[in-house]
Design brief:
Length: 240
């Protein structure tokens, strides 16, 4: 009689435990699918997908397959942030590529925002194009995006070159006007805007910022410089 009762008691006690374990398991899976992991967790995942190759430990086709099963789209924003870690930058690129379609647009935006170079973004697209784990449609999209990134890179380089040329021209103009200000006759020919440019250039060359923290002595010096260089006054302290 007693032996028949004990199994029923054990069954009643174990059932809630099974339910609890299943509940925790389902909760963990749900949270894992919906929420991104931390930098530390993703760093560990990425580093564990390195394999020994001809040039030592690195990433390859096997790494892509492993990352595809261990990384999820929700992790992509954190991966983009991790591009500032030089040690695992290549691994992060492989992780982005492992996400196939989900990784294409975030990679493009990361390059436009200069969080990664356009060349690195193109390499991610190349990985996706050659990754058998991605669909044919996604691989075609990656190929097209690689061409678009090339165009964006050329446009960005042209913009940088133009800005550098403009800065050089501005600096040369300000230097010429600065020399003119040494001669009262030539200084009188300069507009107020031109004199202000020379003044601000001089302040910057001194390592000071008009809007930054200044000592009383520095504030007084800049005020006298402004009166002299911009307003054309003597700059001498007014008599008390």
């Amino acid at each position: 009689m007693r032996g028949a009762i004990m199994p029923r008691m054990k069954s009643r006690r174990s059932a809630p435990l099974v339910v609890l374990l299943l509940s925790v398991s389902f909760s963990t899976v749900s949270r894992g699918n919906d929420e991104p992991r931390s930098r530390a967790e993703l760093r560990n995942v990425i580093l564990r997908t390195q394999h020994l190759g001809a040039h030592g430990m690195g990433y390859g086709e096997k790494s892509l397959s492993e990352l595809a099963s261990r990384v999820k789209p929700a992790d992509i924003p954190v991966l983009v942030e991790m591009l500032d870690e030089r040690r695992i930058r290549v691994g992060v690129s492989f992780a982005l590529a492992s996400q196939c379609e989900s990784g294409i647009i975030p990679t493009r935006e990361a390059s436009v925002q200069h969080k990664m170079s356009f060349l690195e973004a193109q390499e991610v697209m190349e990985l996706i194009t050659n990754f058998a784990g991605c669909s044919g449609e996604t691989r075609q999209h990656a190929t097209e995006m690689r061409s678009e990134l090339s165009t964006l890179r050329d446009a960005d380089q042209a913009k940088i070159t133009s800005q550098a040329t403009q800065r050089a021209e501005d600096d040369a103009r300000i230097q010429r006007n600065g020399l003119k200000m040494l001669d009262p006759a030539q200084a009188a020919t300069l507009s107020r805007k031109a004199r202000e440019e020379v003044y601000r250039s001089s302040v910057k060359a001194m390592g000071l910022d008009e809007n930054g923290p200044l000592t009383p002595q520095q504030k007084d010096m800049l005020e006298r410089m402004y009166r002299t260089m911009v307003l054309g006054e003597s700059g001498k302290p007014s008599p008390q």
